[in-house]
Amino acid sequence: MWHLYALYNGKWVDILSKSNTIGWGSDKDTLAVSLSFESLYNLEEGTHITLKKDSKVVFLGLVISKNKGKVKNSYTCMDYAFYLNKNKLIIQFNKVNGTNAIKQLCSKLGIKSNIVQINTLITKIHKDSEASKIIEDILERSHLETNNIYIKEMISDTLYVRKLSDLKIKPKILIGKDITVNSTIENMFTKVLVVSSDEKNNRVLASAQDRNNILKFGMLQEIITVSEKKDESKAKNMANNFLKENNKVAKDVTIPLVVGDLGEDIIANRMINISIPTMGVDGWYRIKSASHTLAKNNHKVSISIEF
């Protein structure tokens, strides 16, 4: 049984019976989860909203925008990552590991955090940057050094950062038939340089390239700047890891799903097992984006995966 609660006149009220067109979605490149719905209730901006399946919280956030109609109103909500996306900070890290750097940031905003161990040392000054972008910069820096993929997300009022490899889900699904695979080299790189951000030092710390793909696709070069001093092995790891991830023809496929048990667990940045051998898809894949709709207790999902 689904429930849509609003903190209405100081009390949590289930507004589902007078609401419809409920949809929510997430994307791997966006920290916040969004939810939209129409309702006969007249809710104010900032009203707290909770979507539950039975007793399980699926979404918790607040109304960000409202379109008032003659009879019904339309609402767009965001989870509490909204505050990480909106708040800009001035913060300096000096040889602080990634875990403590993120904890320091959250402490400045009064946000609770649960952060996996990230050993990469961070030395950087951030000015006029959104909190979510600072966190992303820390995680990307660690990813280039270690090749670990870290996932950031708000669960209730707490920021969690965990390894993607620990986030496998096993919902019951039926795969639809209308499937198309897209491919592109738009974000491809065939060469990368790692350099210091020190204006007095333009030495290349490390480089990596794929000569065969340079001959095939041309020179597509990226430059990664690092503010802290890196030893050659760490700089080389950064170059190799970046090239491994970006030196390829990127493919993605959008898959309609009919879901059963645990369908509510399907969100971006989860690993899901998908088998469509005719499309070259067979194994565990990271969910790039997920879009849910709920109408008359009928739950449908569409996901996009990259490979």
Overall pLDDT, averaged? Answer: 94
Question: Total helix count?
Answer: 5
How many whole angstroms does the radius of gyration measure? 22 Å
Helix content: 10-25%
Q: Could you please say which CATH topology of the largest domain applies here?
A: Phage tail protein beta-alpha-beta fold
Which sheet architecture does the biggest sheet show? 13 strands, antiparallel
H/E series: EEEEEEEHEHEEHEEEEEEHEHEEEE
Count the domains: 4
Number of strands: 21
Show unreliable segments. Answer: none
CATH class of the largest domain: Alpha Beta
The chain-level structural class is alpha+beta
End-to-end distance: 35 Å
Please state roughly what percent of the residues sit in beta strands, choosing from under 5%, 5-15%, 15-25%, 25-35%, 35-45% or over 45%. Answer: over 45%
CATH architecture level-2 label of the largest domain: 3-Layer(bab) Sandwich
Shape: globular
Give your account of this protein's structure:
This protein is an alpha+beta fold and 307 residues long. The chain has helices at residues 82-86, 98-109, 131-146, 211-217, 232-246; strands spanning 2-8, 11-14, 19-27, 30-39, 48-53, 56-68, 73-79, 88-97, 112-115, 121-130, 150-155, 158-163, 173-175, 181-184, 191-196, 204-209, 221-226, 250-259, 271-276, 281-295, 298-306. The protein contains five helices and 21 strands. The strands form four sheets. Strands 1, 2, 3, 4, 5, 6, 7, 13, 14, 18, 19, 20 and 21 form a 13-stranded antiparallel sheet that branches. Strands 9-12-11 form a three-stranded mixed sheet, with helices on one face. It has a three-stranded mixed sheet with strand order 16-15-17. Helix 2 runs antiparallel to helix 3 and helix 3 crosses helix 5 (232-246). The longest helix is centred in the middle third of the chain and has 16 residues, at 131-146. It starts with a strand and ends with a strand. The model has no long low-confidence stretch (mean pLDDT 94).
